[in-house]
Amino acid sequence: MKILVTGGAGYIGSHTVKELRRGGFETLILDNFSSGRRELVPGGEVVEAELLDLEAVRKVFKTHEVGAVIHFASLIQVGESFLNPRKYYRHNLVTSLNLLEASVEAGIRCFVFSSSAAVYGEPREIPIPESHPRHPLNPYGQTKHFIEIVLEDYRRAYGLESVVLRYFNAAGADPDGGLGELHEPETHLIPNILLSLLGRKPAFEVFGTDFPTPDGSAVRDYIHVTDLAAAHVLALKRLLSSGKSDIFNLGTGMGFSVLEVMKKAEEITGLKLPAVLRPRRRGDVPILLASKEKAERELGWKLPHSSLETIISTAWNWHSRRA
Description:
Blueprint: E1 2-6, H1 11-22, E2 26-31, E3 45-48, H2 54-63, E4 66-71, H3 78-83, H4 85-105, E5 110-116, H5 139-158, E6 161-167, E7 169-171, H6 189-197, E8 204-207, E9 219-220, E10 222-224, H7 225-242, E11 246-250, E12 256-257, H8 258-269, E13 275-278, E14 287-288, H9 293-299, H10 308-322
Parallel strand pairs: 1-2, 1-4, 2-3, 4-5, 5-6, 6-11, 7-10, 8-13, 9-14
Antiparallel strand pairs: 9-12
Helix pairs in contact: 1-7, 2-4, 4-5, 6-8, 6-10, 8-10
């Protein structure tokens, strides 16, 4: 079966394409390469197209025998979404609606959506279960929230079944060394720490030291990108076999503070990290941890790569080799 992977030349998309191909699936990557990298394409056919162009998306379905869709393509920077919400609503919502329109027209019945823990907003309980109310605090999270609602409506109206995967903090790099994180600009914690240690960035900035956490810095749930990718393959297989829509958190249920991550990176690399303390950023919450029991129970999901040491070590291998 050929799986259409939008944003398959991106960080999580490329790792998922690799896992799909390892699992026997044929892949078709659709990417406009605005942020995706050709060097991250791990194989399979590639179509360069713009999801904002509905006719171009329709053509992909007309010229390829697509059996299911995994939708990664989106803008992801929370801070930028506050500054330019119009850009985010256009590039995340309009693109998704075009993809869904073409999918329904082509008779697609299985759709896996890359969502985010940002749909939850300020957590009322920790770890956060999938049943937690959705109250996103930023335009980026709002776009993911809206698409989840659209998918619910499309299931009822058109029979399009979907699995929504709500990520916590993807991190790390392919243990084989061939894939890793290449964002421009880079906004994620661990690569910014490592790039600072490599001298590729100035002093690392710690945003917020007055959170109600043990050391005052924000606590997050970090999941290795390879384990994240494996969850997509499991979710797709379940959807293809059962035809049942569902929602799963993808996280470890364990949290590490910014200062703890910094310390572990210094231990692994043997280098000292220069740091500058900054005020909190708008929309940041103190603690975000996933409840992972549902994914473990219903998908048979395991996390062999998601220790903090493995995450940082594989990321360090990737970034230091590139440097």
